[in-house]
Amino acid sequence: MPRIGLVRFATVALDAARVVVPDYRAPRSKHVFTQPQLLAVLCLLRYDDWTFRDAEIRLAEHQELRAALQLTRVPDHTTLWRFLDRVPLVVLEALLAEVLRRCGPPVGPLGGRRRAVVAVDATGLTTHSVSTYFVRRLDELTGRPRSRASWLKWLVALDVDRQLILAQTAHRGPRRDANTVAPLLTAAPAVQALVAARQLGWVLADREFDSEALHVYAARQLHARTAIPVMRVGGHWMRGRYVPATPHRARMAAAIPPMYRRRVLAETLFSTVKRTQGGTAPGRRAQTQVKQAHLVGISYDLARLEQLTTRRAA
User: Are 41 and 77 in contact (CB under 8 A)?
Assistant: First the structure.
């Protein structure tokens, strides 16, 4: 995904944030910065992989960026950190839903709606900027037992055709997330809108998410077909071939649908995010790290929204 300018990104982020949060949290607020302004700065921070101090310096240097955010003063780095600390996760989820609403439904080549293909996948985000090699070497030189590197697992559901993140969640890894996919898709307004319009065609996932319950959920609740390779558990061997004990998994073991090849586009999205926005979700607490991961997905979709808007206007 080609990068867009920071000024254009800030304009799109501020417009979307104004729909999600009110200008001020309380009538007696200081009224120096509005909540949409601070929320847009947080999205900008994750889009360009800044620290809080970097954001303060860049905003002080960039007059056009301050004008796009309608800032008369530069927020201090502690102001940004406190706002991130108190903003609830539901606000970030609402911001993602607003961005997806502005992107519109999937459109076919002749202008009509088409059935979407949703891929579910996960990747790891580091919780600090210190390299694992430095940590390992420090443990070797000091003679300490090797400390386990903490990392955050970022789980997303994306529209593979439009390369848009439809739903996301994050937690400390490692953990198997076969039972996390159904609640994630159920709570996502963008996914449920596709289900209501019968516009969800496929759900693709890696072997990690192999579960008969997920196949049943996709067929009965999402009205979609599935393509998920099977793990060799819960079945038996017959004539040198593994046969799962449940019908949906047995169908996957017999022949994986060719549509599964499109799941690789999820890896493309992760590669794009880590190359352009960085692969970090910094924070001392797990709650802060989860919010940072959500901001990564929101900032990615905001950049896609700006590109889609420019393409429609052309």
Answer: no
Looking from the CA of 281 toward its CB, the CA atoms found within 13 Å total 27
Rounded CA-CA distance 203/209 in Å is 11
On whether the CB atoms of residues 106 and 199 are closer than 8 A, the answer is yes
- Name the pTM for this structure: 0.90
251 in Cβ contact with 244 (< 8 Å): no
Q: 3-state DSSP call for residue 135? A: helix
pLDDT digit string (tens) for the chain, length 314 residues = 557 789 999 999 999 999 999 999 888 888 899 999 999 999 999 999 999 999 999 999 999 999 999 999 999 999 999 999 999 999 999 999 999 999 988 876 545 667 899 999 999 998 876 666 666 777 778 877 766 566 899 999 999 999 999 999 999 888 889 999 999 999 999 999 999 999 999 999 999 999 999 999 999 999 999 999 988 766 666 666 777 888 998 899 888 999 999 999 999 999 999 999 988 899 888 999 999 999 999 999 999 999 988 887 76
Give CA–CA dist 312/303, Å, rounded. 14
Q: Report which of 286, 303, 301 is spatially closest to residue 153, judged by C-alpha positions.
A: 286
Query: From CA 204, how far away is CA 248, in angstroms rounded?
Result: 14
Sequence ranges of the domains in the chain = 6-87, 108-283
- For residues 16 and 37, give the distance between their C-alpha atoms in angstroms, rounded to a whole number: 11
State the Cα–Cα distance between residues 146 and 129, nearest whole angstrom.
18
Q: Which residues contact 158 (CB under 8 A, 6 or more apart)?
A: 118, 119, 121, 164, 165, 166, 265, 266, 269
